[in-house]
Amino acid sequence: MANTIEASGSMQEYERKTTSGVAPRTAVQTKKAASARPAKEGFIDVRNLVKVYGGPGQEKIKAVNDVSFTVAEGEFFGFLGPNGAGKSTVIKIITTLLSKTSGSIRVAGLDLESKGADIRRIIGYTGQSIGVDGELTGRENLWLIGRLYHMPNALVNERVDELLEVLQLKDAANRRAYTYSGGMRRRLDLGAGLVHHPRILFLDEPTTGLDPQTRNAVWEYLRKLHKEERMTIFLTTQYMEEADQLCQRIAIIDQGKIVAEGSPAQLKAGIGADVITVRISQGEAFEQGRERALAIVGAVAGVTHSTAFDEGVSAHTADGGATLLEILRRLDAERVPVLQVSLAHPTLDEVFLQHTGRQMRVEEVKPMSRGFRNRRR
Ligand SMILES: Nc1ncnc2c1ncn2[C@@H]1O[C@H](COP(=O)(O)OP(=O)(O)OP(=O)(O)O)[C@@H](O)[C@H]1O
Ligand SMILES: [Mg+2]
Hints:
The chain is of the alpha/beta class. The protein has helices at 2-8, 11-20, 25-34, 87-94, 116-122, 138-148, 153-166, 182-192, 212-229, 240-246, 264-270, 286-299, 320-333, 348-356; strands at residues 44-53, 61-71, 76-80, 102-107, 110-111, 123-126, 200-204, 232-237, 249-254, 257-262, 274-280, 303-309, 312-317, 338-344.
């Protein structure tokens, strides 16, 4: 039995399949050149996507309302939004698990409508609900996924060991998964999506419900996959920090619409609110020093707002780095007795607030048991 399986999937054959996939890079480029669509088609290209839930006689819910975005090949892209924003709906449509109402989607140059099966071959997906088998051990669950993807035994074993370690499931690896706690099941589920390294990885809230230590280990692993394998990664998250730490580009989604898009730095710069704080040395010359500092800071190009406070002055600016240098240069030239200067960047929380007028609430832990073991529930 083992021999037959081995014979059907040598390491070379597996590597050839996974590195070339169904749409080798050259083929994608040729297709792009020949296509009537704009030259700037994204590796993942979503245009005017609409999803309305609810059949005849049912309440209609417009979960996705004219969403367009592209993800470049090799990019780490994030969908950031609160509960019910439409993140899972979009990810399920792109991964062919859910039908769209309207719009067009292409993945690696393949049209979703006619080439769904080909797309499924080059992507990996980890959803929010548990997709592992409780009767199998953690190790068996991961091993089985690898074999289903025709990965050779040696490679599966290597990956399974690596993932059990990263997800801190080594000690429980040989226990049946139904004995796992909610957090352990969640980790195993995430592991199942990471066994076969796909060209494009879709992760729906991969770290929701994980403890901070495991979350950090998962972040490290995803960074490694992205860097070493040039994997294109699309993740959804409710965590500002996760999007900030991992993603090169982010789309903020709220109530089915993209409200802002860009790199974390661009998004933060866009709200024009880096804060520079200048503390003045306490002493006889304090009052005079603060007054001069306020006049100097207020006159620097790029400062949108400046105020005095009990220890010195603070200024708002869109580009903190450049403005800080200029402020320092002028304070020094005018011999203002500066004690300390600091620069604080705005967080993505402030970006979300600015674009939606609301703060993003995070629902910490989702129910883990749904769909696990008893899938008909
Ligand atoms: N099968 C369904 N039938 C009807 N409405 C649905 C269905 N699935 C999702 N919705 C609705 O669509 C909207 C978007 O849901 P979706 O699951 O895409 O949000 P989400 O951003 O993934 O949220 P969360 O962070 O809670 O996972 C919500 O209003 C939700 O109630
Ligand atoms: Mg969701």
